[in-house]
Amino acid sequence: MSLDEDTRWLEWVTKQFESIAGEDKEIDLDEFKTALKVKESFFAERFFALFDSDGSNSISLDELLKALNLLIHGSESDKLHFLFQVYDVDGHMFCKPDATGSGSIDPDELRTVLKSCLRESAISLPEEKLDDLTLALFESADKDNSGSITFEELKAELETFPEVMENLTIRIKTLRQTPRYLTRAYWHNNSRKLLFLCLYSFLNVLLFIVYMLQHAAGGLWLMLAKGCGICLDLNCTFIVVLMLRRCLTWLRATWVVRVLPLDQNILLHQIVGYAILVFSVAHTMAHIMNFIHLTQVHESYQLWEYVFTTRPGIGWVKGTASITGVVLQVLICLMVVCSSTFVRRSGHFEVFYWSHLSYIWVWALLIIHCTNFWKWFVAPGIIFLVEKLVGIAVSRMGGLYIVEVNLLPSKVTHLVIKRPPFFQFKPGDYVYINIPVIAKYEWHPFTISSAPEQQDTIWLHVRSMGQWTNRLFEYFRQSDSQAISNKRLTASLRNHRNQTKTQISTKLSENHRYCDIKCYVDGPYGTPTRQIFASEHAVLIGAGIGITPFASILQSIIYRMRKQNCPNCNYSWCETIKDNEMMLRKVDFIWINRDQKSFEWFVSLLTKLEMDQADEEPEGRFLEMHMYMTSALSKNDMKAIGLQMALDLLAKKEKRDSITGLRTRTQPGRPDWGKVFQKVSEEKKGKVHVFYCGSPALAKVIKAQCEHFGFNFYKENF
Question: If 0-12 CB within 10 Å is exposed, 13-18 middle and 19+ buried, where does residue 171 land?
């Protein structure tokens, strides 16, 4: 830490201390707990006892700064002594200031510390597993088998974990000076999008200038209104093109995807939407100013007559241009406001959904309002209508039923839908689903989480985040509902008559049941992940329920990898089936979850992936999995060092992770993306393509790192 950083940090600590401390200028235990924001009081009490050097049951600013200075600037030995005192429970907390406990750590003390570590990291493990963790760490550290761990033994054990030793300090992040938008890597990796936006902007400016000059005789305000009007014709037509999901899905399979930014259609849709708002407001205000000018020159009509009546005869359909313009302005503003992030992400998706359906009225009013709009709109409008009719026909074709439901942790609903024979899709595709018993007219998009090779059923995993998704979860959670029970009996009767191999029961478990509920599916529609099998080195990053497109991809990989067994010995290996699409040489799968229970969503799939893949392959592992749990304290947190060491030791001993049961060790905290991508870059398995599905905030962080390393970045948007 530099001198300037040190000074700023001391000023910040002093300011924070003064805001917490009372008139006595000291902090008591309760205030200390509040300031630390810890889940488990054990560590707050241990740190407080160690910081309180004079044994006064309160901490002064000098005592706090002295302790923090040791943790930041102290030697490695000083920091290890502090850690040892935290773990040496029996004595220091209630001893005199110079006491340091018994001088050794016994198994019971270690168990107490690890139990508190588990609570602090929001990890739930059985008591037996806690005993196993304690013994694993204790047996490894107690080198002389004396029945206790001394300071020297703890130090020796810590030295076998270099990543822990490196992090026994506090580091301050430095801000990058150069904005990423000005870097060469950003322009290289976003060349298609930036070029397209330049052409789009140039076309708008060109049309604006040409139409302004054509109406120069009408005055400045009329020139501005006409210039904005022609730009509205362009943008209100282009936004239709960006809504042609079937056409865009088809184009993704052609060479066009290498020229046009088809994977950015949602971003472009948003940009064009905001452009329409700006042009429409400018167009409306310019006309109003022109009407004010006309009332002053001719005095034939009042301003309100120009704006709200048909008397002036403005417009090609019975003088309705002004009235339709006012209605259009209101509808456009309503659509933009209701499509804002705070509306869509705050559990009010239905507000966005229903307000966006007013696009039908917008197009109808535009045809009436503007003389030439129909000429712009006719071609894409017909294609859009055909797409809609095809979608309706496909969704109503054949009887689709939800045949199985599994309610998973964190309010995730796993739907199993009977797959129609004509339904073909690619890994990572999504569909719109309508379930009449939940909402008769609402359609919602969800990624298909099953593999295309799975012929009988389609899987959807739905996270409860809004009104519709919550109603869906609650509908299936209410197991005593008579309506559901009747449908299950109908399903059982139908399947019995069809003599299916599997007998359908009304209830498999508390959260798992068979059913027979009518639904409609529109799709599938393509996403950027369609390009994964054309990549050489793919990095799949799912945050929370963002794993769903990658669940489909990973299952497809299982089907494409043949397991071979040697007839003369027990050796087995996986042989990847090569085809025209399969160019993959390496896949890194990264799954980030907030809590432990979320890993249960796809743990069976991940277990199968680990079992099917050989331990050793000539070119290294084809698939590597990396699990991160953000609620768990990372290894640079002193409250988690012992726990993470114990988890590492037990994982090596049992050949599986204690949190998920997988062979892959679950890492605590958030990934260090710089280190993750540096490792990927050093593997040199070919051009790296990073596919991400999750929160927009994390997407920005990952995208910035991809630009730094020169990786291609794709984000799921629908």
Answer: exposed
Tokens of 187: 């322009």
Task: Report which secondary-structure segment, H or E, holds 620.
Answer: none
pLDDT tens sequence across 676-705: 999 888 888 888 889 988 888 888 888 888
Query: In which band, very low, low, confident or very high, does the pLDDT at 614 lie, cut at 50, 70 and 90?
Result: low
Residue position matching structure tokens 């850690």: 83
Alpha carbon dihedral 478, 482, 488, 490, in 10-degree steps, equals -160
Structure tokens of 629? Answer: 């749990």
Q: Is the link from the previous residue into 445 a cis peptide, with omega within 30 of 0? A: no
Residue 174: what are its φ and ψ, rounded to 5°?
Answer: -100, 140
| Strands in 568-635 per DSSP E | 572-576, 586-593, 623-629
Q: Reduce the DSSP state of residue 573 to 3 states and report it.
A: strand
Between CA 262 and CA 527 the distance in angstroms is: 9
> What single DSSP character describes residue 38?
-
Could you tell me if 110 and 137 are in contact, meaning their C-beta atoms sit under 8 angstroms apart?
yes
pLDDT, tens digit, 9 for 90 and up, residues 93-150: 433 333 344 578 888 888 888 888 888 777 888 888 888 888 888 888 888 888 888 8
Helix (H, G, I), strand (E, B) or coil at 94: coil
Task: Output the pLDDT for position 230.
Answer: 92
d(CA 139, CA 372): 83
Instruction: Count CB atoms within 10 A of the CB of residue 342.
Output: 8
* Contact criterion met (CB below 8 Å) for 550 and 693: yes
DSSP for 147-166 reads SSB-HHHHHHHHTT-HHHHH
CA atoms within 13 A on the CB side of 155: 11
CA 460 to CA 28: how far, in whole Å?
A: 52
- pLDDT tens, residue by residue, 529-545: 777 877 888 899 988 88
For residue 89, give both structure tokens: 């429970």
* Helix or strand holding residue 689 (H, E): strand 688-693
Task: Report CA-CA distances (Å) from 448 to 59, 439, 464, 547.
Answer: 56, 20, 16, 11
